[in-house]
Amino acid sequence: MCAKYFRSAIAMFAALFFMSMTSVSHALPLVSAGYDLFQTQPGTSLDPAILQPSFPNPFPLPIPLPLPVIPLEGVPLGTFDFGGTVGVQSVGNTDTIIRRLPPDADGASGSDTVEIELVALQLKSVDPVDLSVLGPLPSDSTIYITLQSRRQPEDTAVAPTLIPLAPPSDSTGEMTINFVDANGGTFDSFFDVFFDVRLDAVDGDILFSADKQFATTGVEWGRIPDPFDILIEGINHFLAGSGDTSGDFFPVELTELAPVDDENTVHKVKTATIPEPATSLLLLTGLLGVGALRRRKAAVEAA
Fold it and tell me: Which of 11, 62, 153, 169 is least enclosed, having the fewest CB within 10 Å?
């Protein structure tokens, strides 16, 4: 009788174990809603031809503007207000932030589609730009690029009678997240970027406004951040709950965002890091040096 009950218990345990393993093996991979924090990389540039529709052409023929391609670099945000209970957080070298909304599906098909929005962007020209070819404008200016959605009521255009400012628009789009397994895969994305080009400051007068659709394909992503990535719980880390990385999403290589119809405009980014490894190593070396000097001094005084 005991043997019969023992066999029944073993059979029940085996059935429960099989069911639990089946549920685990069929668990659907997900990416939780959150934010992607990026910092701009070398190779980012703006095609000056985008300026042409904004200014009257003094010539009868539509000739290209005599401006070279403009190299750009990031302007760190420092802090960003994520709203809700998270509020203002330090984001260090981050100059570009993309918000991911909750997925439309559950990953059962091997991919999820999510709506995205570019919520922060701060870039500037690496070198001064000669804008005098456009009219009565400075010949030695730094241009800045910001989102229209971050425009303030007091912002004005450089030449409002020639370039009236259109109402600001949000920079939204879509991302398709493909799963190789539960721990990562690739993604494709596109979004329309509505931006302002400003003179000499991130809050300077607006030179002109424009929009471009940017896209990227086949970028790899994973659950585990790199050692120096900026991590903010509930924003880009532990999105599924404290200590739980099952909903996290980190691009694992350089991401290149480019308009499909403009080979000279490109935005190259990678996941934002703070502090940079070289800075950390320099700081550590300095601290070790100071410690060695103090020990040497103490040893000489003791002798």
Answer: 153
